[in-house]
Amino acid sequence: MDLSQTFSRIAFYQILLGIVTFCFAEANPGMLLVAGSLVVLSRYITDGPWGRPLPRWAINLAALGTLAWWVSEWFSGPHNIIITMGHFTMWLQILLLYARKTNREYGQLLMLSLLQMIGASVLSVSIIYGALLGVYCVLALLTFLTFQLKSSSDRVYEANRSAASDQRRVGRPDPVVGRGYRWQFRSATTMIAVICAALAVAVFIAMPRSIESSLLGDTGEGLSPKHVGFNPQVRLDGKPIAGGSHVPVMNLRVELHGEPISSRSWLMRGAALDTYDPFTHTWKRSPEAVSTDRRLRVNKRGLTLAHLPQNVPIVHAYITLRQINHRNLFTYLPMTHFQSDGISSAVFSPRDRQLSSSGPVLSALIYTLRWPLFNIRDLDRRYTDLEQPAFNEPMMLQPNMVTFDQDQYARGWPVQGPRIRSYTLGVLSELGMSRDPFAKYDPADARIAEVLADHLRSTCNYTMDSRRADPEAEPIIEFLFGSRSGHCELFASSLAAMTRSIGMQARIVTGFRASEFNQIGGYYIVRQSDAHAWTEVNLGSGSGWRSYDATPAAEIDRQARQQRTWMTSLREAYEHLEFGWIRSIVAYDVGARRALLSGLNAKLAKSVRDDKAWLGQIVTFVRLLPMAWQLDKTNTAKAVGTVVFVAVVSVFLIRLVVIRRRRMTALKLAALPPVHQRALAKHLAFYMDMTALLRRHGYIRPSWQSPRSYAEDLARNLPGRMDPAVTLTDLFYRVRFGLHTLDEQQRRRAKVYLRQLEKALSGPPRA
Questions:
Q1: Domain end position, chosen among 577, 604, 635
Q2: Is residue 635 part of a domain?
Q3: Which of 545, 577, 609 is the last residue of a domain?
Q4: In angstroms, rounded to a whole number, what is the distance separating the alpha carbons of residues 231 and 249?
Q5: DSSP secondary structure letters along 613-647
Q6: In the list 151, 501, 586, 665, which could disulfide-bond 413, CB 3.0-4.6 Å?
Q7: Average pLDDT over residues 134-148
Q8: pLDDT at 599 over 70
Q9: What pLDDT, in 10s, does the model give residues 104-137?
Q10: Which residue, 125, 81, 358, 82, is CA-closest to 249?
Q11: Its pTM surpasses 0.85
């Protein structure tokens, strides 16, 4: 086994796999193409037949340039520290691959690769990444074990060279520990892998994870649309939030009385935006709304936000929120209860009902929501209980001097208000309706809001094209009085502008529209492209806030709908498999552990009680064994001792058979009759010991050379030291081919020659 070449190949594959896996976790195909090409090219430039490594000064200069680039990128603006550090370690690995690689450089490469994989584990929750990580762990274990053998072999080789009179005659030792080293290496690797896997499973089950962390800091604005369509702010001049990819971001299972609901769509709200900036054309959350945020502890029973009357049908929603990098949690209006074992505290506003985690959510999160099936009158007033200090030990996030004026919240329209008011009243007058713009509430507000939403749905066209005829014009004015075509943000903004212009309270909400139902798993799957915006209007008179979607639902479904083929079914099956991976592995928390252990305990108890199950039969047999055999304590101890003795003897015999079989294979005795095989294998044990001793010191017989010729070469190159090897080889020929048997005196002489050979190899060379 050429250890250096073997280790070099394995280490190269590990580094390449680490870089490919990190690029996959980052979802950066461009980086994968560039970095992967450079890594593959390094194999031919530095280790190929005509390859030459780059000089050390060039590597150091490039490393300094990489460090300067990383520092400049870090201070140029906010960046994800995991991605930035991953890029830095990636380029350092690529540079080291082009350098002359000693054990020091290989150690640096392996450590950088491990650090990069740790960072990649934070970036992705995909089951494909999990599979790549599993392959990487196995390959890394093999690489580190081989690296240990190579390091030991190099140290022995250098010691032999320094002690030899002619360094050219010193061969590189083979890192063996005895006969059958390949089997021993494979067995040791397998045993270590099994032990590590068992420890990992035990730690995984015993220590559920908390997914709250401040490692990346507060991102504030959340991820870019490249990663997730949802955005806690809406800029009407930008690209549509529904323009994201088809990557799943949420799984939603909605149940009523334990049965899933699959016949409708759901608007899962993430951010409530009540202020419109006419200069930047951006919807934001006002400081007045932020001032009402309350930090509430989430205990084992969850967080009750509003108490409902008795006998009200309750809808249960089970949400698996995949990895995102912002604090917003997606809920439903009107949500009354929240529960999750993944976070310990949440931030909730009783005014705009926005719910978020108290810290960034860096991994998948599983939580449960409850809300009433029908509208409950005066439900808004029930949320005011949150303002009482005794409720669930609320804590203010920070002192805030902003005062909240409920009457002025989300009222009035700052952009061409009279023009939009006149247009809105004209729409209502065509249906024989009207509203006093100065009235706080009107009994017909629910009907008015629905009429205006239906007007926009029927007279305007939905499109994902964000190009505008006049980029300088006000987007809402251009939409209402010009193009009459736009995306969901424009529909929601126009409805909010129209209702607010006639005195109503309105805000827009960003989140996701869940309408794609996975038939295999029985849940809705929500993708980045399902990001949506709609309007919430306060109807007053005990009805509170209600959601209105002015965007044509049929057009959204038509653009998002894909033709169902066998590929669709295959994709659903894969996504269901990944959904199980995320719920069971990625989002494993206290609740998941509790469910797992309780399920195992229940199954174990049921199997023990069931006399027909194999476990129950074993338990019954062991329990009745003393009674059946009438064993007392003394006889029981004797029986146990007998069983242990038989087990030890069996293991010894099996080991003896395995050693003998390996010995016969190494001596190539398979063609002889079984009787001669066993006899020769016993008498030739001394020769196997001699070859193992030579291999440990770097003397390996080539496959093309006979044992006698090899022994004579050793004696000729190392006179006086290898004479015992020649004598033992002659004895080997007499036994192997002359069918000579060794008596006790010859066995002792063979052992003496082995000790002489070992002493000669271990001692200093003769002058």
A1: 577
A2: no
A3: 577
A4: 13
A5: SHHHHHHHHHHHHHHHHT--HHHHHHHHHHHHHHH
A6: 501
A7: 89
A8: no
A9: 899 999 999 999 998 888 787 788 888 899 899 9
A10: 125
A11: no
Is 505 a member of any domain?
Answer: yes
As given in the structure block, the two tokens for residue 188 are 């040791």
What pLDDT score was predicted for residue 630?
Answer: 58
Closest by Cα among 41, 144, 50 to 97? 41
3-state secondary structure of 125: coil
- What domain range includes position 700? 667-762
**Interatomic CA distance for residues 343 and 590, integer angstroms:** 10
**Helix or strand or coil: residue 524?**
strand
The amino acid that residue 34 corresponds to is V
Task: Identify whether residues 757 and 680 lie together within a single domain.
Answer: yes
Give burial (CB, 10 Å; 0-12/13-18/19+) of 175: buried
- Residue 658 tokens read as 């395995």
- Inter-residue contact 435 to 442 (CB < 8 Å): yes
3-state secondary structure of 265: coil
Residue 244 domain-assigned (yes or no): yes
Q: Which amino acid is at 300?
A: K
Residues 633 and 635: their CA atoms lie apart, in Å, by 6
CA-based angle 281:282:287, to the nearest 5? 135
Distance, in Å, from the CA atom of 428 to the CA atom of 447, rounded to the nearest integer, reads 10
Are 253 and 317 contacting, i.e. CB atoms less than 8 angstroms apart?
yes
Kindly write down the DSSP assignment for every residue of 383-443, as one continuous string.
GGGGGSTTSS--B-SS-------TTTTT----SSHHHHHHHHHHHHHTTT----TT-S--T
Residues 366-380, mean pLDDT to the nearest whole number: 85
Domain total of the chain: 3
Q: Is the domain of 376 the same as that of 293?
A: yes
pLDDT at 693: 85
Q: Which residue has the higher pLDDT, 7 or 608?
A: 7
Which token pair is 116?
């990069």
Question: What is the Cα–Cα distance from 77 to 690, expressed in whole angstroms?
Answer: 67
Structure tokens at 67: 């460090």
- In this structure, are 339 and 420 located in the same domain? yes
Alpha-helical segments (H) within 270-312: 287-290
Strands 266-273 and 345-348 come out as unpaired
Q: Is the pLDDT score of 215 beyond 70?
A: no
